[in-house]
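Q: How would the C-alpha cells look for this protein?
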Amino acid sequence: MKKDKVKVIDEEMNDEKIRRFLTLKPYGEESVDFYVLTKAYRGLPIEYFATFLEMFLADGRDINAKNAQDQSFVSFIEGNSNFLEFVELLKSKGAQ
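A: Here is the predicted structure in C-alpha cell form.
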C-alpha cells in the first residue's frame, strides 16, 4: 500500500455513502444492476447491504439482473456458504 493511502477498517457508514454504490458503472457490457449488486455485496457488511438493497429496489433496479454467464446475482453468490445471510436477504426481497 502506498504511504499516502490509509487502510480504513470499520468505517462508519451512512445513507449517503451507501447510496454511492448506486452510481457505479461497469467498464464493459456487464449489466449495471448486476455490477452494482456485486460491488455492494463485496463492499458492505450485511447490515449496510440490507439498507443498500432497500435503496436499490426503491430506485427501480433489477434484483434478478444476470451476468454474462446468465446467472442471477443470488445464484452467483449462493455457492459461498459463508454468506448465507446475504442469500436469505436477497431471496426475502424477491431474488431468484
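Residues 15-92 form one domain.

The chain has a mean pLDDT of 88.

Upvote if useful.
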